[in-house]
Amino acid sequence: MIQGTCSGAGKSVVVAGLCRIFTDMGLNVAPFKAQNMALNSFITKEGGEIGRAQAFQAQAACIEPCNDMNPILLKAANPSGCQVILNGKVHSNMKASEYYSFKAEAWNAVTSAYDRLSKKYDVIVIEGAGSPAEINLQEQEVVNMSVARYANAPVVLVGDIDKGGVFASFYGTVELLKDGSKSSNCSKIGKLCDADYIKAFIVNKFRGDMDILRPGLRMIEDKTGKLVIGVLPYVRDINLPEEDGLALYKGSGVRGQGSGKIRIVVARLNYISNFTDFDPFMYEPDVELNYSLREEDFNNADLIIIPGSKNTVNDLLLLRQTGVEESIKRAAQKSIPVAGICGGYQMLGRKIIDPFGIESGYKEVEGLGLLDIETVLEKTKVTSQVEAELVSSLSLFNVVQNSSNCDFKNIKGYEIHMGVSTGDIGLLRFSRLTPYDSHFTVVMDGSQKGNVWGTYLHGIFDNDNFRTALLNSLRMKKGLPAKGEAINYSACREDAIKKWADVLRKSVDICFILRLLNLDAKCCKEYQMQGEL
Fold first, then answer.
1. Catalytic-labelled residue, pool 458, 492, 511, 524
2. How far apart are CA 391 and CA 266, in angstroms?
3. Residue 417 annotated among the catalytic residues of the structure
4. The model's pTM
5. Contact of 366 with 350, CB cutoff 8 Å
6. Is 458 a catalytic residue?
7. Cβ atoms of residues 374 and 402 within 8 Å
8. Paired residues of 76 in beta bridges
9. Which is nearest to 457 in space by CA: 496, 410, 396?
10. Could you report the per-residue pLDDT of 227-286, keeping only the tens digit for each?
C-alpha cells in the first residue's frame, strides 16, 4: 500500500509506476483505491464510473479498468456535499455528516471489491487518500489504515519535499499513528498499531544536492526506525496526468511545453471535471494550453473550450459574474471557435432547467445562447463508453475535410452526464457500447452553430485524426502550415509511463518492496538482472 503525508504527495503516480514495474516482471497486477475524491473520472466497460487515476494505473498495469479498482468515488458538488458513486453507480448526494453514518455500507463495498480483485491478481498495489494521520477521522475512514489492516498490507509512505516539512511529516505521521488501531472496521492482527504497518519512506519531488539531504535521511531513519528506500527527483517533462484540479490553480495555469503558436484557452471553472480531456494538447509542439478566467486570454485565443463541470449551474453563474461570459460571446462574434464539452456544452445552450434541484436551487437558468439547445437536468446519470461518427461537417473543418487521413467515423470516448439536451442536435452519432435496459442504443449528440459547437463526448481530443484536423483548421486560419501526420497520443501516454517507471527503478529500492511482498530472493535477482539488461 502506498500512502502519503498529504494530498498531492505523489501516491497516484508511484502506484502507476509500481504497477508497470511489476507487470514488466511478469506479475499479474491491479491497482486499488478504496475511496477517491476527485472530479476526474472514467467510464469502465461495465458502464461504471471510477477515478481517472485508477484507469491510468490500470493502463500502467496493462489491464482493462474495472469498477472494483475504485468502489467509492466522491465528487464534490458544492462546498458542503458530494455525489457518492458506489460500485460505479450514483448512490446519492450526501453531506459529510451523512456520509460518516453511511460507513458500514461503504466499508462493505470496499472489502467486497478488494476481495474480488484479490482472487484475480498476484499483486494489488493499494493507494491511500490524503494523510492516514487525520486523527479526527480515524474512527470513520475507509481508505487508509483501515484498508492496510484488512489486507494486512505493508505501507510505504510518500512525502513531497517540494512542499517543505517532509521530515516533520514523516515523523508526525508515525507518532500520531502509534495509538491508531482503534477503528472497528476490522480486527487488529496480533498487537500491531497503525504505525507498525509503515515499513518505509519515499521522498518525492527532490531538487537539490543529495549530499546535503543524506544526513536528514539517516536522522529520520534513526528517529522512526523506518528506512528511506528512495528519493524521487522533481520531474517536469514526462506529462503524467494529474488526479485533481489542484494542479490548475498553481502558477499561470499554462500546461504543456508548446511554443504557443496555437493558443487554446480552457475556462478554469470552480467545479471543473475531467480536465484530462485536454491533456492530448500538451503533446502538440505548437500548442499552448491555458486554464484561465482572464479576459485578455480569451481575447487572444485561437480556440476557447468550456469544459465539463460537476456543478454546471454554479459554474455558468461564475462565468456570468466574472464577466467571462461576455468575453466568450465577443470571441465568438470575432469568429474565434468556441467548443463545449459535457457541462460546457450545456452552458452554450439557451437555458438549463433543473426541476429536481439536482445541482442548485435554481429551477431554470439562462445559458450563453450560442447554441440552439436546451438542457433538462435529470435524476439518472448516463455513463457509457461510446463510438461516435461525425455526421454534420464542422465548418471549422471545411479547409481539411477532403484530407485523406481525416477519419471521423471511429471516434472513441465516453459519456458522464445527468442532463438531456434537445433542440438542434445532430453533430455526432453515438453508438453506446454499454447496454441500457439490456440493449445497446444509438443516439444523436452535439450541436453546432457557426464557429460554436459542443458535445457530451469526453475523450474526443484523444482521437488523433479528430484533434489533428481541428488543430490544422486553426493553423491554416493563422496562415501556418497544416501538419500531415498526427501525433499518436496513446503512444505518448505509453512512453510517459515507461519513462516514469524507469525513474522509479533508478530511484527506489524495488527489491525492498519485493521482499515486503514475500517474493523470494530469486525474484529480486531476476529483477536486478532485468535492470542491468
1. 458
2. 25
3. no
4. 0.91
5. yes
6. yes
7. no
8. 82
9. 410
10. 999 999 998 777 787 755 445 545 445 666 667 799 999 999 999 999 999 999 999 999
